[in-house]
Amino acid sequence: MLSSLSIRNFRSILDMTVNFSFAEKKAPAGFRDSDIVFFAEPKKHVRLVPALALYGSNASGKSNVLMALGTFRDCAVSGVQGKFHPDKLHPEWRTTAFEATIVRDGKRFVYAIEYDRDEFRKESLAVDGTVLFSIDGDRRSFGSLATPSYPAARLEEIFRVECSTPLKKQTSSFLSVIGKRYPGLCPRVTAVYDFFNDGIVVLSENSIHLSRGVDMLAAVLEKADDPDPVRHAFERITDLLENLDIHINRMELSRRRIRLDRDARERNYLDVDPEFLTRLTSFQKEGDDIVLNTDRIRSFHQDADGREVEFDFMTEESSGTQIVAGLLGVFLAVLESGGVVAVDELDRSLHPLLLIELVRLFKDRRYNPRGAQLVFTVHNTDILDAALLRVSEVGIITKTLQDGSTLARISDFAGVGNIASFRKQYLTGCFSGIPFPYI
């Protein structure tokens, strides 16, 4: 689980820490037996919230928080090329820095990077206060990772050859090289790499193709040795979709796969049926071959005479229904794996009651027994009156020229309790983070 995320000099954010701690002094009465997830406790005396809603005016920097998480993830699992997006209004800040505190398998990890347009300047990973590796320009320490098979000198060579350019600029993260290419060297490093690579999903908008949601959930089920992961993933998504009162009786998925033939002389792939490509949903690489997937998704409704009528899901169902279906696949995959999903404008094209139920998935112990977390930006305020989110789970983003975008959770404001009407207080400006328009 994410315990905290620190962001420095990324777009409108100069210096911000996103805190996921349960900030209330006392746990709610009966919390252990409650169906509601008030917090998860992945480590003794560490309580972390399952949801964080981010409110604020337009252009306050809400989306930049999620973009920062996604950029941090991309840097951690690959490198820094094309990922430098500093605050242009403060040119004196020359580097971007991220730091995440992660609690996983009862251990507290702190992973940090600092980089500029061309290279990593710093990178480090510590577990429970012990530094596993630290890179600061020419000063490097791999002592805690060294083994008889991989002494410090060999780790230094791995760093020089696999992380750095001939000009001695570090462009690939050491975390990704060890976690991906040497996974057995240090299970603790691999666990953090896997968390970034598989455990964090960032959606720049709430619209995602249902087939992608099916694929994401199927991938999680496949790791759990499910004998038919695609079919079972689709069934779980559609069962939940039907429960949300979308007026769909049932759904069917037909998947066609086509393997592309490669012209060895031209080193490219031959043409495929254009009609196939119009329904293309994903592709996979199997050896040297590319396999394309296309899905036909049908939904069935009941007409006025009680007869079943077939709809093409992607062309005849509403955009809101398609949004909910796609999100359900992603959410169920994250809930199944205990990961983190961040969604920008989660409320777009959604009825407020559907929005509440989607968030409730992460607050319901039946669906979230593994400590999955949802971070989302939102403008709809109905959810603040739904007795669903607590003071630790609502953040307000504000922005000034001097300080950039800043974040305060409702728990940071004095005198605000969980029985208060967050919506009324927010809309009257008690927490700031609202516009003051006039025409």
Automatic annotation (TrEMBL):
Residue span(s) of domain ATPase AAA-type core: 231-385
Gene Ontology molecular functions: ATP binding
InterPro entries: ATPase_AAA_core, P-loop_NTPase
Keywords: ATP-binding, Nucleotide-binding
A matching Pfam family: AAA_21
Descriptive protein name: ATP-binding protein
Organism of origin: Oxalobacter aliiformigenes
